[in-house]
Predict the 3D structure of the following.
Amino acid sequence: MSTLAQDLSLLETRGLVRTTLEHEKPFLRFKHALTREATYNSMLQSRRAELHRAAAQTLTEMNPQPDLEMVLTIAEHWQRGSEDALALQTLLPHAQTLLFTGRSLSLTALLLRLQRENLPASLQCELDSALADAHAARGEYEPARTLYERVLPHADSNAQRARLLQSLGVATYHLGSYAEAIEFYRSSLALAQALDDTALQARSTGGLGLAYFSLGETDKAEEFLQQSRALSLQNGESIELATAEYNLALVQRAMGQYAQAIASAEHALRLEEQFDHSAAAARSLQLLGACYHSMGDLATAEEYYRRAIFGSRALGDAMATAIVQSNLAELFAQQQDVAQATEFYQQAIHYFRETKQEYALAYNLAGLAQIELLHYAINADAERLANARHAAQEAFEIANQIRSPEIQGIAYRVLAEIAGAQKDFEQAENFAAQSLELLKQVNSSLELERAYRVYGQLLSESADDEKRRIGAAFLAKAEKGVS
Protein backbone atom coordinates (compact mmCIF):
# COMPACT_ATOMS: atom_id res chain seq x y z
CA MET A 1 0.00 0.00 0.00
CA SER A 2 1.38 3.38 -1.01
CA THR A 3 1.99 6.09 1.60
CA LEU A 4 0.63 9.62 1.50
CA ALA A 5 4.11 10.91 0.68
CA GLN A 6 4.36 8.53 -2.27
CA ASP A 7 0.92 9.52 -3.57
CA LEU A 8 1.78 13.20 -3.36
CA SER A 9 5.13 12.62 -5.06
CA LEU A 10 3.33 10.85 -7.91
CA LEU A 11 0.91 13.75 -8.32
CA GLU A 12 3.84 16.18 -8.40
CA THR A 13 5.64 14.05 -11.01
CA ARG A 14 2.54 14.14 -13.19
CA GLY A 15 2.44 17.94 -12.96
CA LEU A 16 -0.81 18.18 -11.01
CA VAL A 17 0.61 19.68 -7.82
CA ARG A 18 3.74 21.59 -6.84
CA THR A 19 5.62 22.23 -3.62
CA THR A 20 6.48 25.81 -2.62
CA LEU A 21 8.25 27.24 0.40
CA GLU A 22 6.08 29.73 2.29
CA HIS A 23 6.99 31.19 5.67
CA GLU A 24 9.90 28.73 5.73
CA LYS A 25 7.49 25.78 5.48
CA PRO A 26 6.71 23.53 2.49
CA PHE A 27 3.25 24.06 1.01
CA LEU A 28 1.64 21.74 -1.53
CA ARG A 29 -0.62 23.44 -4.05
CA PHE A 30 -2.43 22.45 -7.22
CA LYS A 31 -0.46 23.60 -10.23
CA HIS A 32 -3.55 24.97 -11.97
CA ALA A 33 -6.76 26.42 -10.52
CA LEU A 34 -8.84 24.43 -13.05
CA THR A 35 -7.31 21.17 -11.80
CA ARG A 36 -8.14 22.14 -8.23
CA GLU A 37 -11.74 23.05 -9.10
CA ALA A 38 -12.28 19.89 -11.14
CA THR A 39 -10.95 17.72 -8.32
CA TYR A 40 -13.01 19.53 -5.69
CA ASN A 41 -16.22 19.40 -7.71
CA SER A 42 -15.80 15.68 -8.43
CA MET A 43 -16.26 14.85 -4.72
CA LEU A 44 -19.64 14.28 -3.10
CA GLN A 45 -20.77 17.21 -1.00
CA SER A 46 -20.82 15.08 2.14
CA ARG A 47 -17.20 14.04 1.52
CA ARG A 48 -16.16 17.65 0.96
CA ALA A 49 -17.77 18.71 4.24
CA GLU A 50 -16.03 15.85 6.07
CA LEU A 51 -12.62 16.89 4.71
CA HIS A 52 -13.24 20.55 5.56
CA ARG A 53 -14.09 19.61 9.15
CA ALA A 54 -10.94 17.50 9.38
CA ALA A 55 -8.86 20.37 8.02
CA ALA A 56 -10.42 22.84 10.49
CA GLN A 57 -9.78 20.50 13.41
CA THR A 58 -6.18 19.83 12.39
CA LEU A 59 -5.38 23.50 11.80
CA THR A 60 -6.95 24.42 15.14
CA GLU A 61 -4.76 21.88 16.96
CA MET A 62 -1.66 23.03 15.09
CA ASN A 63 -2.32 26.71 15.73
CA PRO A 64 -3.40 27.31 19.35
CA GLN A 65 -2.74 31.05 18.77
CA PRO A 66 -3.53 31.51 15.07
CA ASP A 67 -2.63 34.66 13.16
CA LEU A 68 -5.47 36.52 11.45
CA GLU A 69 -5.09 34.79 8.09
CA MET A 70 -5.20 31.42 9.82
CA VAL A 71 -8.32 32.49 11.75
CA LEU A 72 -10.06 33.19 8.44
CA THR A 73 -8.82 29.90 6.97
CA ILE A 74 -10.01 27.82 9.93
CA ALA A 75 -13.38 29.60 10.01
CA GLU A 76 -13.86 29.01 6.28
CA HIS A 77 -13.14 25.29 6.69
CA TRP A 78 -15.71 25.06 9.50
CA GLN A 79 -18.25 26.93 7.37
CA ARG A 80 -17.65 24.72 4.34
CA GLY A 81 -17.89 21.74 6.67
CA SER A 82 -21.44 22.82 7.66
CA GLU A 83 -20.29 23.77 11.16
CA ASP A 84 -21.51 27.37 11.16
CA ALA A 85 -21.49 27.70 14.95
CA LEU A 86 -17.82 26.69 15.14
CA ALA A 87 -16.99 29.04 12.25
CA LEU A 88 -18.60 31.96 14.07
CA GLN A 89 -16.97 31.07 17.40
CA THR A 90 -13.60 31.01 15.62
CA LEU A 91 -14.17 34.50 14.20
CA LEU A 92 -15.74 36.33 17.13
CA PRO A 93 -12.65 36.77 19.36
CA HIS A 94 -10.78 38.28 16.41
CA ALA A 95 -13.58 40.18 14.65
CA GLN A 96 -12.57 43.70 15.70
CA THR A 97 -8.91 43.09 14.90
CA LEU A 98 -9.89 41.73 11.48
CA LEU A 99 -11.76 45.00 10.85
CA PHE A 100 -8.93 47.21 12.12
CA THR A 101 -6.40 45.51 9.87
CA GLY A 102 -8.49 45.92 6.75
CA ARG A 103 -9.96 42.44 6.45
CA SER A 104 -13.58 43.60 6.51
CA LEU A 105 -14.20 42.24 3.00
CA SER A 106 -13.10 38.70 3.94
CA LEU A 107 -14.92 38.85 7.27
CA THR A 108 -18.16 40.13 5.71
CA ALA A 109 -18.10 37.45 3.01
CA LEU A 110 -17.63 34.69 5.59
CA LEU A 111 -20.33 35.98 7.93
CA LEU A 112 -22.83 36.30 5.08
CA ARG A 113 -22.31 32.63 4.19
CA LEU A 114 -23.30 31.43 7.67
CA GLN A 115 -26.84 30.06 7.95
CA ARG A 116 -28.36 32.22 10.67
CA GLU A 117 -31.41 30.00 11.14
CA ASN A 118 -29.18 27.03 12.03
CA LEU A 119 -27.55 28.88 14.94
CA PRO A 120 -28.83 29.04 18.54
CA ALA A 121 -30.51 32.33 19.48
CA SER A 122 -27.48 33.63 21.40
CA LEU A 123 -25.19 33.07 18.44
CA GLN A 124 -27.73 34.63 16.07
CA CYS A 125 -27.33 37.88 18.04
CA GLU A 126 -23.55 37.52 17.96
CA LEU A 127 -23.68 37.00 14.19
CA ASP A 128 -25.93 40.02 13.66
CA SER A 129 -23.68 42.21 15.79
CA ALA A 130 -20.46 41.09 14.08
CA LEU A 131 -22.02 41.48 10.65
CA ALA A 132 -23.29 44.96 11.56
CA ASP A 133 -19.76 45.97 12.61
CA ALA A 134 -18.39 44.59 9.34
CA HIS A 135 -20.95 46.52 7.28
CA ALA A 136 -20.22 49.71 9.22
CA ALA A 137 -16.48 49.29 8.68
CA ARG A 138 -17.19 49.19 4.94
CA GLY A 139 -19.37 52.31 5.04
CA GLU A 140 -22.57 50.28 4.54
CA TYR A 141 -24.54 52.03 7.27
CA GLU A 142 -28.10 51.15 6.27
CA PRO A 143 -27.69 47.37 6.72
CA ALA A 144 -25.54 48.04 9.79
CA ARG A 145 -28.31 50.10 11.41
CA THR A 146 -30.92 47.42 10.64
CA LEU A 147 -28.79 44.73 12.29
CA TYR A 148 -27.91 46.84 15.35
CA GLU A 149 -31.63 47.59 15.86
CA ARG A 150 -32.38 43.86 15.66
CA VAL A 151 -29.77 42.99 18.28
CA LEU A 152 -30.43 45.86 20.74
CA PRO A 153 -33.59 44.38 22.39
CA HIS A 154 -31.63 41.20 23.14
CA ALA A 155 -28.63 42.89 24.81
CA ASP A 156 -28.02 40.93 28.01
CA SER A 157 -25.84 43.51 29.81
CA ASN A 158 -25.47 47.26 30.15
CA ALA A 159 -22.00 47.00 28.61
CA GLN A 160 -23.38 45.34 25.48
CA ARG A 161 -26.31 47.75 25.35
CA ALA A 162 -23.96 50.75 25.65
CA ARG A 163 -21.78 49.49 22.79
CA LEU A 164 -24.79 48.84 20.54
CA LEU A 165 -26.24 52.30 21.25
CA GLN A 166 -22.92 53.91 20.37
CA SER A 167 -22.75 51.87 17.16
CA LEU A 168 -26.30 52.92 16.29
CA GLY A 169 -25.20 56.50 16.84
CA VAL A 170 -22.41 56.05 14.31
CA ALA A 171 -24.72 54.47 11.72
CA THR A 172 -27.49 57.07 12.05
CA TYR A 173 -24.94 59.91 12.02
CA HIS A 174 -23.49 58.72 8.71
CA LEU A 175 -27.02 58.34 7.34
CA GLY A 176 -27.61 62.03 8.09
CA SER A 177 -30.03 61.58 11.03
CA TYR A 178 -28.07 63.84 13.38
CA ALA A 179 -30.77 64.41 16.02
CA GLU A 180 -31.41 60.66 16.26
CA ALA A 181 -27.66 60.00 16.44
CA ILE A 182 -27.41 62.42 19.38
CA GLU A 183 -30.07 60.47 21.27
CA PHE A 184 -28.19 57.20 20.73
CA TYR A 185 -24.87 58.76 21.74
CA ARG A 186 -26.37 60.29 24.90
CA SER A 187 -27.90 56.97 25.94
CA SER A 188 -24.61 55.20 25.32
CA LEU A 189 -22.70 57.86 27.25
CA ALA A 190 -24.98 57.56 30.29
CA LEU A 191 -24.42 53.80 30.44
CA ALA A 192 -20.67 54.18 29.82
CA GLN A 193 -20.42 56.64 32.71
CA ALA A 194 -22.31 54.25 35.00
CA LEU A 195 -19.90 51.48 33.95
CA ASP A 196 -16.88 53.80 34.34
CA ASP A 197 -15.86 52.83 30.78
CA THR A 198 -13.69 55.77 29.68
CA ALA A 199 -12.98 54.29 26.23
CA LEU A 200 -16.68 54.11 25.39
CA GLN A 201 -17.26 57.53 26.94
CA ALA A 202 -14.57 58.89 24.60
CA ARG A 203 -16.25 57.36 21.55
CA SER A 204 -19.72 58.59 22.54
CA THR A 205 -18.60 62.16 23.31
CA GLY A 206 -16.69 62.23 20.03
CA GLY A 207 -19.84 61.16 18.21
CA LEU A 208 -21.81 63.88 19.98
CA GLY A 209 -19.22 66.43 18.88
CA LEU A 210 -19.52 65.47 15.23
CA ALA A 211 -23.32 65.33 15.34
CA TYR A 212 -23.63 68.78 16.95
CA PHE A 213 -21.14 70.18 14.45
CA SER A 214 -23.24 68.81 11.60
CA LEU A 215 -26.22 70.65 13.10
CA GLY A 216 -24.21 73.89 13.17
CA GLU A 217 -23.81 74.00 16.98
CA THR A 218 -20.09 74.72 16.94
CA ASP A 219 -19.59 75.53 20.63
CA LYS A 220 -21.22 72.30 21.79
CA ALA A 221 -19.29 70.38 19.17
CA GLU A 222 -15.92 71.70 20.30
CA GLU A 223 -16.79 71.04 23.95
CA PHE A 224 -17.63 67.38 23.29
CA LEU A 225 -14.65 66.83 20.98
CA GLN A 226 -12.21 68.18 23.57
CA GLN A 227 -13.92 66.07 26.21
CA SER A 228 -13.49 63.02 23.97
CA ARG A 229 -9.78 63.74 23.61
CA ALA A 230 -9.34 64.24 27.37
CA LEU A 231 -11.10 60.94 28.12
CA SER A 232 -8.98 59.14 25.53
CA LEU A 233 -5.76 60.48 27.05
CA GLN A 234 -6.67 58.71 30.31
CA ASN A 235 -6.00 55.43 28.49
CA GLY A 236 -2.70 56.62 27.01
CA GLU A 237 -1.72 55.95 23.41
CA SER A 238 -4.73 54.09 22.02
CA ILE A 239 -7.13 53.67 19.12
CA GLU A 240 -9.65 55.77 21.07
CA LEU A 241 -7.13 58.64 21.15
CA ALA A 242 -6.52 58.23 17.41
CA THR A 243 -10.27 58.45 16.80
CA ALA A 244 -10.57 61.53 19.02
CA GLU A 245 -7.71 63.23 17.15
CA TYR A 246 -9.24 62.32 13.79
CA ASN A 247 -12.64 63.74 14.81
CA LEU A 248 -10.98 66.96 15.97
CA ALA A 249 -9.11 67.20 12.67
CA LEU A 250 -12.35 66.79 10.73
CA VAL A 251 -13.95 69.74 12.48
CA GLN A 252 -10.79 71.88 12.47
CA ARG A 253 -10.45 71.41 8.73
CA ALA A 254 -14.11 72.29 8.13
CA MET A 255 -13.60 75.48 10.15
CA GLY A 256 -10.53 76.44 8.12
CA GLN A 257 -8.07 75.71 10.96
CA TYR A 258 -5.76 73.80 8.64
CA ALA A 259 -2.54 73.80 10.67
CA GLN A 260 -4.37 72.45 13.73
CA ALA A 261 -6.21 69.90 11.60
CA ILE A 262 -2.95 68.64 10.09
CA ALA A 263 -1.36 68.27 13.54
CA SER A 264 -4.38 66.31 14.85
CA ALA A 265 -4.61 64.11 11.74
CA GLU A 266 -0.87 63.36 11.80
CA HIS A 267 -1.13 62.26 15.44
CA ALA A 268 -4.10 60.07 14.54
CA LEU A 269 -2.15 58.53 11.65
CA ARG A 270 0.88 57.75 13.84
CA LEU A 271 -1.32 55.94 16.35
CA GLU A 272 -3.24 54.06 13.66
CA GLU A 273 -0.03 52.85 12.06
CA GLN A 274 1.35 51.94 15.49
CA PHE A 275 -1.70 49.77 16.22
CA ASP A 276 -1.95 48.40 12.66
CA HIS A 277 -5.38 49.97 12.17
CA SER A 278 -5.03 49.99 8.39
CA ALA A 279 -8.59 51.07 7.61
CA ALA A 280 -8.39 54.11 9.89
CA ALA A 281 -4.90 54.98 8.60
CA ALA A 282 -6.21 55.18 5.04
CA ARG A 283 -8.98 57.47 6.29
CA SER A 284 -6.46 59.77 8.03
CA LEU A 285 -4.34 59.92 4.87
CA GLN A 286 -7.42 61.09 2.99
CA LEU A 287 -8.09 63.78 5.60
CA LEU A 288 -4.49 65.01 5.44
CA GLY A 289 -4.86 65.25 1.68
CA ALA A 290 -8.03 67.27 2.14
CA CYS A 291 -6.26 69.66 4.53
CA TYR A 292 -3.43 70.36 2.11
CA HIS A 293 -5.98 70.58 -0.71
CA SER A 294 -7.87 73.29 1.18
CA MET A 295 -4.60 75.16 1.75
CA GLY A 296 -3.89 75.13 -1.99
CA ASP A 297 -0.90 72.77 -1.77
CA LEU A 298 -2.21 70.51 -4.53
CA ALA A 299 1.01 68.50 -5.01
CA THR A 300 1.10 67.41 -1.36
CA ALA A 301 -2.66 66.83 -1.39
CA GLU A 302 -2.39 64.53 -4.41
CA GLU A 303 0.43 62.59 -2.73
CA TYR A 304 -1.72 61.92 0.35
CA TYR A 305 -4.77 61.11 -1.78
CA ARG A 306 -2.76 58.61 -3.85
CA ARG A 307 -1.50 56.93 -0.66
CA ALA A 308 -5.04 56.83 0.72
CA ILE A 309 -6.56 55.35 -2.43
CA PHE A 310 -3.79 52.74 -2.62
CA GLY A 311 -4.45 51.73 0.98
CA SER A 312 -8.24 51.66 0.58
CA ARG A 313 -8.11 49.57 -2.58
CA ALA A 314 -5.69 47.11 -0.96
CA LEU A 315 -8.22 46.67 1.86
CA GLY A 316 -11.13 46.24 -0.54
CA ASP A 317 -12.75 49.29 1.08
CA ALA A 318 -14.98 50.54 -1.73
CA MET A 319 -16.52 53.33 0.34
CA ALA A 320 -13.17 54.87 1.30
CA THR A 321 -11.92 54.44 -2.26
CA ALA A 322 -14.94 56.31 -3.64
CA ILE A 323 -14.41 59.16 -1.17
CA VAL A 324 -10.81 59.61 -2.30
CA GLN A 325 -11.87 59.38 -5.95
CA SER A 326 -14.18 62.31 -5.19
CA ASN A 327 -11.26 64.22 -3.62
CA LEU A 328 -9.01 63.54 -6.60
CA ALA A 329 -11.77 64.63 -8.97
CA GLU A 330 -12.01 67.98 -7.20
CA LEU A 331 -8.23 68.37 -7.17
CA PHE A 332 -7.97 67.74 -10.91
CA ALA A 333 -10.91 70.09 -11.48
CA GLN A 334 -8.88 72.86 -9.81
CA GLN A 335 -6.00 72.08 -12.15
CA GLN A 336 -8.45 72.14 -15.06
CA ASP A 337 -7.53 68.56 -15.92
CA VAL A 338 -11.01 67.91 -17.27
CA ALA A 339 -10.48 64.31 -18.37
CA GLN A 340 -9.16 63.02 -15.05
CA ALA A 341 -11.67 65.02 -13.03
CA THR A 342 -14.56 63.60 -15.06
CA GLU A 343 -13.25 60.04 -14.74
CA PHE A 344 -12.88 60.21 -10.96
CA TYR A 345 -16.26 61.90 -10.46
CA GLN A 346 -18.00 59.28 -12.58
CA GLN A 347 -16.36 56.44 -10.64
CA ALA A 348 -17.38 57.95 -7.32
CA ILE A 349 -20.93 58.72 -8.50
CA HIS A 350 -21.39 55.15 -9.72
CA TYR A 351 -20.51 53.77 -6.29
CA PHE A 352 -22.56 56.30 -4.30
CA ARG A 353 -25.60 55.81 -6.55
CA GLU A 354 -25.44 52.01 -6.17
CA THR A 355 -25.05 52.19 -2.39
CA LYS A 356 -27.62 54.99 -1.99
CA GLN A 357 -25.15 57.27 -0.19
CA GLU A 358 -27.31 60.30 -0.91
CA TYR A 359 -25.17 63.05 0.62
CA ALA A 360 -22.00 61.89 -1.14
CA LEU A 361 -23.93 61.31 -4.38
CA ALA A 362 -25.35 64.85 -4.35
CA TYR A 363 -21.94 66.37 -3.54
CA ASN A 364 -20.28 64.54 -6.44
CA LEU A 365 -23.09 65.37 -8.87
CA ALA A 366 -22.53 69.04 -8.05
CA GLY A 367 -18.82 68.54 -8.67
CA LEU A 368 -19.48 66.82 -11.99
CA ALA A 369 -21.78 69.71 -12.96
CA GLN A 370 -18.86 72.07 -12.33
CA ILE A 371 -16.63 69.98 -14.62
CA GLU A 372 -19.26 69.93 -17.37
CA LEU A 373 -19.40 73.72 -17.04
CA LEU A 374 -15.62 73.84 -17.44
CA HIS A 375 -15.96 71.64 -20.55
CA TYR A 376 -18.43 74.19 -21.89
CA ALA A 377 -16.10 77.10 -21.15
CA ILE A 378 -13.31 75.37 -23.11
CA ASN A 379 -15.32 74.07 -26.06
CA ALA A 380 -18.56 76.11 -26.08
CA ASP A 381 -20.42 72.80 -26.40
CA ALA A 382 -24.12 73.33 -25.62
CA GLU A 383 -24.50 69.66 -24.65
CA ARG A 384 -21.97 70.18 -21.85
CA LEU A 385 -24.03 73.04 -20.47
CA ALA A 386 -27.16 70.87 -20.54
CA ASN A 387 -25.24 68.06 -18.75
CA ALA A 388 -24.07 70.54 -16.12
CA ARG A 389 -27.61 71.78 -15.49
CA HIS A 390 -28.98 68.23 -15.26
CA ALA A 391 -26.32 67.13 -12.73
CA ALA A 392 -26.71 70.31 -10.62
CA GLN A 393 -30.49 69.97 -10.54
CA GLU A 394 -30.28 66.33 -9.50
CA ALA A 395 -27.83 67.31 -6.75
CA PHE A 396 -30.24 70.01 -5.57
CA GLU A 397 -33.23 67.63 -5.56
CA ILE A 398 -31.34 65.06 -3.49
CA ALA A 399 -30.16 67.80 -1.12
CA ASN A 400 -33.78 68.86 -0.62
CA GLN A 401 -34.79 65.28 0.18
CA ILE A 402 -32.03 64.79 2.76
CA ARG A 403 -32.39 68.38 4.03
CA SER A 404 -28.77 69.33 3.53
CA PRO A 405 -28.32 73.12 3.35
CA GLU A 406 -24.65 72.60 2.46
CA ILE A 407 -25.37 70.63 -0.72
CA GLN A 408 -28.33 72.88 -1.54
CA GLY A 409 -25.96 75.86 -1.31
CA ILE A 410 -23.31 74.17 -3.45
CA ALA A 411 -25.90 73.23 -6.09
CA TYR A 412 -27.26 76.79 -6.13
CA ARG A 413 -23.71 78.11 -6.61
CA VAL A 414 -23.20 75.87 -9.66
CA LEU A 415 -26.64 76.76 -11.02
CA ALA A 416 -25.68 80.44 -10.62
CA GLU A 417 -22.57 79.86 -12.73
CA ILE A 418 -24.63 78.01 -15.36
CA ALA A 419 -27.17 80.84 -15.51
CA GLY A 420 -24.30 83.31 -15.81
CA ALA A 421 -22.85 81.31 -18.72
CA GLN A 422 -26.28 81.61 -20.38
CA LYS A 423 -26.25 85.40 -19.79
CA ASP A 424 -29.32 85.11 -17.55
CA PHE A 425 -27.80 87.40 -14.91
CA GLU A 426 -31.00 88.01 -12.97
CA GLN A 427 -31.45 84.30 -12.30
CA ALA A 428 -27.71 83.88 -11.72
CA GLU A 429 -27.72 86.56 -9.01
CA ASN A 430 -30.81 85.01 -7.44
CA PHE A 431 -29.17 81.57 -7.30
CA ALA A 432 -25.92 83.06 -5.96
CA ALA A 433 -27.75 84.93 -3.20
CA GLN A 434 -29.58 81.75 -2.14
CA SER A 435 -26.30 79.83 -2.22
CA LEU A 436 -24.67 82.35 0.09
CA GLU A 437 -27.55 82.34 2.59
CA LEU A 438 -27.61 78.54 2.78
CA LEU A 439 -23.84 78.17 3.15
CA LYS A 440 -23.78 80.72 5.97
CA GLN A 441 -25.79 78.14 7.96
CA VAL A 442 -23.08 75.48 7.79
CA ASN A 443 -19.52 75.27 9.01
CA SER A 444 -17.61 75.03 5.74
CA SER A 445 -15.34 78.00 5.17
CA LEU A 446 -14.15 76.63 1.82
CA GLU A 447 -17.66 76.40 0.32
CA LEU A 448 -18.54 79.81 1.72
CA GLU A 449 -15.44 81.30 0.09
CA ARG A 450 -16.51 79.79 -3.23
CA ALA A 451 -20.03 81.21 -2.86
CA TYR A 452 -18.67 84.70 -2.12
CA ARG A 453 -16.36 84.43 -5.13
CA VAL A 454 -19.12 83.41 -7.56
CA TYR A 455 -21.58 85.99 -6.27
CA GLY A 456 -18.88 88.66 -6.22
CA GLN A 457 -17.88 87.92 -9.80
CA LEU A 458 -21.49 88.15 -10.99
CA LEU A 459 -22.08 91.45 -9.19
CA SER A 460 -18.78 92.94 -10.38
CA GLU A 461 -19.98 92.57 -13.99
CA SER A 462 -23.22 94.46 -13.30
CA ALA A 463 -23.98 97.89 -14.78
CA ASP A 464 -25.15 98.99 -11.33
CA ASP A 465 -22.43 100.84 -9.36
CA GLU A 466 -23.74 99.65 -5.98
CA LYS A 467 -23.77 96.04 -7.12
CA ARG A 468 -20.21 96.37 -8.41
CA ARG A 469 -19.14 97.78 -5.03
CA ILE A 470 -20.74 94.86 -3.17
CA GLY A 471 -19.23 92.45 -5.69
CA ALA A 472 -15.75 93.83 -5.07
CA ALA A 473 -16.28 93.44 -1.31
CA PHE A 474 -17.40 89.83 -1.79
CA LEU A 475 -14.37 89.04 -3.95
CA ALA A 476 -12.06 90.59 -1.35
CA LYS A 477 -13.74 88.50 1.36
CA ALA A 478 -13.26 85.35 -0.70
CA GLU A 479 -9.58 86.13 -1.27
CA LYS A 480 -9.00 86.92 2.40
CA GLY A 481 -10.74 83.74 3.54
CA VAL A 482 -13.95 83.30 5.49
CA SER A 483 -13.63 82.33 9.14
Q: What stands out?
A: The first strand starts at residue 17 and ends at 22.
